[in-house]
């Protein structure tokens, strides 16, 4: 089978190649999947660059989440049969024609979604759910400020925030991105290049945002501290800007807000019961068709490096997907 392979770490993703590799028959508890679509996520880029906390041994195949068809079942598997459509949660291996994975890491594919949509909803919406429900305790009637709102995890937060009854302010870096966000239900949109502190205060009658969802970090985090409401929750999702910011602890003291770290996967690993509830919640929404990722573009397996570069260069709105 053909697979994307990383034989050496590279900052500019130049060492990503396509190779023919052998795939063994599925082992105990495993299923073999014909991959139909694999979402491209920011951690994929970090792994290729050697910057992610999980560093797979090389050579490896990127791809953390995929959707496809079960083509073989290993011993001890009774949850899936050949022909089932599934969503697979992977650490690596999704950018390939086939993959073996534990059946326990797979779920039935939502009937309301295409392969491309199904490949791209789990990580984004699970991050948004853990952030807003478990960690941010967002309530109906509150104001939610979402940064990086045109990215996969940002757009998921906009969707979920609206479903939870919040007034959603979305920031992004271009008019094209703002137009998409407005069309998908954001109440207000702000071009982050123009600054956002004053506009957020204006939209909230001087009170500031109750919950701020920040996957960007850097200067965006710094400015967020200046437009958060009393008792607000500033959710740290990641540092896509590249700079990990600092906060003087007198600011949370004076303004009465909390800085809350969010690691959706770790949340589920440390509390498996609640982790299962979180997955069930987003799967229920997916099955009902109330959440649906925005697929900006699809790329062939040979174009996987370009897909990752588009994500790196902030050219993506929503999700990009590789279709082997």
Fourth-level CATH superfamily of the largest domain: Medium-chain alcohol dehydrogenases, catalytic domain
Poorly predicted runs:
none
**What is the makeup of the main sheet?**
7 strands, mixed
The proportion of residues in beta strands is: 25-35%
Number of strands: 15
The fold-level CATH name of the largest domain is Quinone Oxidoreductase, Chain A, domain 1
| SSE ordering | EEEHEEEEHHEHEHEHEHEHEHHEHE
What is the distance, rounded to the nearest whole angstrom, between the alpha carbons of the first and last residues? 10 Å
Shape: globular
Tally of separate helices: 11
- Measured on Cα atoms, how large is the radius of gyration? 20 Å
Mean pLDDT: 95
Task: Characterize the structure shown.
With 324 residues, this protein is of the alpha/beta class. The chain folds into two domains: 2-121 and 293-323, Medium-chain alcohol dehydrogenases, catalytic domain (Quinone Oxidoreductase, Chain A, domain 1, Alpha-Beta Complex); 123-266, Rossmann fold (3-Layer(aba) Sandwich), CATH 3.40.50. It is built from eleven helices and 15 strands. It has helices at 42-49, 115-120, 122-135, 152-163, 175-183, 197-203, 218-224, 250-255, 264-270, 272-288, 304-312; strands at 2-6, 16-20, 30-39, 65-73, 85-89, 98-102, 106-108, 143-146, 167-172, 188-191, 209-214, 228-236, 258-261, 295-300, 319-323. Strands 3, 4, 5, 6, 7, 14 and 15 form a seven-stranded mixed beta sheet that branches.
